[in-house]
Amino acid sequence: MSQDRIKSLLHEDRSYLPPRHGKDVARIRSRREYDALCELARTDNDSFWAERARALLHWFKPWDKVQDTDFNEPRVRWFVGGRLNAAYNCVDRHIISDRRNKAALIWQGEREMEVRAYTYQMLYTDVCRVAAALNALNIKKGDRVALYLPMIPELVVAMLACARIGAVHTNIFTGYADGGVQSRIHDSGARLVITADAVMRGGEPKPLKSNLDRILNHCPSVEKVLVVNRANTEVNMLKGRDIWWQDLLDDFTLDADFPCVSMDAEDPLFILHTSGSTGRPTGVIHSTGGYLTYAAHTAQWVFDLKDTDVYWCTADCGWITGHSYLVYGPLSLGATTIMFEGTPTWPRPDRYWRIVEKFRVNILYTAPTVIRSLMRQGVEWTNHYDLSSLRILGSVGEPLNPEAWMWYHTYIGKGELPIVDTWWQTESGGIMLSPLPYATHIKPGSVTKPLPGIEAGIMSGDGSDDCAQEGGHLVIRKPWPGLMTGVFQNPEKFKSYFNRFPGCYLSGDGARVDEEGNYWILGRMDDAINVSGHRLSTSEIESVLIAHPAVGEAAVVPMPHEIKGEAIYAYVAVKKEVEWSETLRKELRTWVRSQIGALASPEQIQFVSELPKTLSGKTVRRILRKIASGDNLESLGDTTTLAHPEVLEDIYNNYLKLKVGQPEK
Ligand code: PRX
User: Is the model's pTM score more than 0.90?
Assistant: First the structure.
């Protein structure tokens, strides 16, 4: 299909019917079935979820009560009194079935010839070994274990080994800088950190262990560090604290069948930090029973996951998508899941398509930022590969703009495959709004409808719910099993999700609903920025900027970006004695990078003599956001509440100068 054709399609209000092929064997085959399931969940919510939990998981003891939830309090309790173990569900029960020798995990290393595959039986052996080793290190149920690991199989094994003994894992994305790693380890009170010597990037090892050494002095809870040898690089091993993973596992007189702990459904399975609105990351807690049910349920329905499928979620396990859809969802269903260590463009931008062909991937779940960057590399990179094994394409993390949608559909889906654009969050545990591939009429750019059992709605700022078509706050009105059960050591933060609109969970996103009931996500309504599908907090970046000795004040807002979706635009007012200079601009960028990580590095830093403020001294970010988005001076809205409206002209003119590469003033 030509580029012109794609462009003209973008202007059509087109919807795509579900494919015929595969429909008769799909889990949910029609709009009628979808409607019936929604109705069932509405009229008998408890039975709906109980049926899913029973069908999908193995419970050591059934629950006494399906849910004990109340958004007003808030209280989130699912499958009360039930007992299970997540590792048992993801591994043990498959080895007493026909899946015993099925590939559970296929790992593609950064280098093409580095591939490791684990059958369920092999995964079981390794998980038991590591669980026994953790036990030998005196790690107990409820202890936190931080996993600061690259995308290597040991990460999945470590997650499941923690789950096996009831330890709570907290995964830390390897792209964070020292500050991000330190606050996450420190706040979780982890007793053990599992890391690797290095992570492979672009053919070169990038150190991990030495990063950790720098920060562990500030993390008093950490007693031991387990180090996986990934890249054979030299590291310092601190006597009495640091242990090689390989040594521990080799030396141990291992019990091949290390028992798993029976967990209460409400016991936490993991904590995952997401960017908070206060500048400190929010430690989202997910429970064992509710979370696992929801991860398995959504993986099965949204991806129509079958036993014969090879399924690939490209997300890093440092993010929620990697938890729910690389590990817990697919493994609890006994699927074959692929894990990729590398990046889409190294050594060439054909890496994804090579993997699809090599492993005959059936379901591909990736992110808009990846699609956009591969789109820019040109379609010729897809041409040499046989992508005919694919049957479902997925997207998550940020809006999939219609142009990227069309490219994905046309060149990867060959104009036939359904695309499930899935909306959800770290807090929701699993997918909330999404097409069902064989039942939903899909509109490019829309995440279509809530899944059965999910009661979504749109609220205006004043709490009325009659603004669905103009747009407003996206809320969820009824509890679902995947919802976080709390925020680690921060009950006030947990409450903040529920107190704005009584009886509703506030997502923080804006959305509108069209006449056909399709949802269109409009982006964050709070102070979060979504860079390449990763949520970052503007106030966290502002605090880091202000901590720099040259900076007096800072305001951080999103700006549109062709590949990343959104990027970071920082307005900085320096201290009196400091000069504006390119050197300082560079230094500030490096400073943010070093404190939070490369993702948070500002795309642009604009120096201002003064930030626009109200009479009461509040920075008016609304106006700064508009300027960074390219709005002209006349369309900045009401500026009468500003203490010094005249600063705007300067800010605007300097914005224009920077845009064409000239420094301010
Ligand atoms: O703004 C929404 C955006 O990502 C946010 C959640 O970020 P995080 O907790 O890091 O989880 C990302 C992966 C689930 C949401 O509040 N978002 C997620 N999916 C979509 C999306 N925005 C538009 N369309 C989506 N499909």
Answer: yes
